[in-house]
Structure prediction request, 324 residues.
Amino acid sequence: MNTLLAIPRRHRWIWAALGVVILWVALSIATERFSLHSVSGVARSASFLALVALGQMFVVATGRGNIDLSVAGVVTLSAFITVTIADGTNLHLPLALGAALLTGALVGLVNALLVVRFRIAAMIATLAMGYVLATATLMVNRQVRGFETAPMLEWLASGRIGDVPVVALLAIVAATLAAYVLNRTSYGQALSATGQNIRAAELAGVRTGRIVTTSFVISGICAALAGALLSANVGGAFLDMGTPYLLQSVGAVVLGGSLIFGGFSTALGTLFGSLLLILIVTTMQIWGLPAGAQDVVQGVVIVAVLAFAGDVGGRVVRRRKAGG
Prediction:
């Protein structure tokens, strides 16, 4: 019995996976038409969120309440950059993707500079960066005369292999790579140590500044990739297209079982958390809830999970102090 109870503690992604199964069964019963084909559509929507959330996960893992609030701006700006440079041709696509990913990486570097060097709280620094990106997006928007999508990027974003969306396969590959980095590399071990106790990690010889910087760069690149793919999925770019991913990326991370106070992250859980969050939104749409009510429900769910996680984290800290 104790062994069974220990499984969810070691594999925190199980709760998100269980939520996906329960919600899928409930929707299938309620609608009598929610099939595997329907889920593939949900999986495609969840995949864009998963790409952003996987990057957000690395920032959250650094601890101290670090969250990247610039992801929405990166998603939107990278979408505009992609459609502007690609100009609807595969010939210019490598340059467009390179420019978008480079933009995400540079934003991550600036965020890290503000957080690590100038010791500005991550939420404040990245929120300010978000406003800068919004202004940059307005400037780029003035140069766009029309939207044409490169065929190859459109296939990656909207194509299917059988009933499986190609972008879902990309999200799975990204999650697998993230899991490998977290669990099988020295960076992943250093990231976990930094998130658990940054001072102790520094005393142990971990270069925490580099760890935090790398995490923000990863977040920026993931958001930029998601923005580039989204531009092909919707057939262009529009202002605030990245806004929904700001709250949802954090929600997917915590719903997936990662600790919001850092030290433990699960890529598989983030993938399931993204799918669960999109299923929740789908359920509300089927019920006919207005967009405002959907945002409220998402906010309540995420706040409830954060409150629970914070309570658990507080008990862990108190136990460590009592034992030490």
In short: Residues 139 and 236 are 16 Å apart (CA to CA). Residues 46-268 form one domain.
